[in-house]
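== Protein entry: sequence and backbone fold ==
=== Local backbone shapes as whole numbers ===
==== Amino acids and backbone structure tokens ====
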Amino acid sequence: MGEMSSFQLGVIGALFLSVASSVSIVICNKALMSNLGFPFATTLTSWHLMVTFCTLHCAQRFNLFESKPIDMKTVMLFGILNGVSIGLLNLSLGFNSIGFYQMTKLAIIPFTVLLETLFLKKQFSQKIKFSLFLLLVGVGIASVTDLQLNFVGTILSMLAIVTTCVGQILTNTIQKRLNVSSTQLLYQSAPFQAAILFVSGPLVDQFLTKKNVFAYKYSSIVLAFIILSCLISVAVNFSTFMVIGKTSPVTYQVLGHLKTCLVLAFGYTLLHDPFAVRNIIGILVAIFGMGLYSYFCSQENKKKQSVDLSLGPQMKEKDSTPLIAIQDKESHEVKKAAKDSLV
């Protein structure tokens, strides 16, 4: 029970850190890009990842966590995939209307559910699917305005959806199958993500903004906001890997839409951004969908835990249970191998 409560506290802490840091960095970047005229989003993301790696490297040097070696090919492909997905999302925003870009982000949840169902054989109950549907409808009502389609933008959006979904599923799968922590995986993959964006970022930004990041005149206040953005990004990247590792890619996307609603509400109340009744209704529907998702997930987890507890004694007594059957099969294979080696 102690381990379970410690795990739940870790999940709550990761969720809170993710929401707080993400909302903070959105506010910071909005001031940096909208008010101060620094439009180089992809290049800024590469700096975020470089600062994250440097911070984790210092933490590792001070023995705050133990670095665990991971297969270089796995880490490299994982890092490049995540870097490419960020670039594609930014290109999607550049080639599409804001409304279509929001639809692209909304499509990530159903596509993640589809991929996990087909390839990981994960089951989602009808209640979970219904709560996700309500959430997506609510966020769509609140944030999607115009839907202007074009061929190149649609292709970029589809590629962004695929790479983002696969990257987030791998973030969860690698942590569980290779038994590495979120910190260890982020530490190993951040250099590759930073490298791909550091090379492609200035080109993507120049293509989208018609401006050169290296020719930009950096004032002291712009530099201060860039440094602040990079520092906040450490918490954002760390909490992202932690949330996906401790929960699931779908839960992380649900949390992302909660952040969207909070940012919208912040804009309406404090920054006096224009809003309509439709926006408020959308936010309320989305929050209701999130509440249902959280409740149904909690109920299913409790049910699963009670089933596991009730099956615990039976698994020790019956040889026909799946776990013991696997163990028997493994022991039989070991004995057979030993016998073959003697022959």
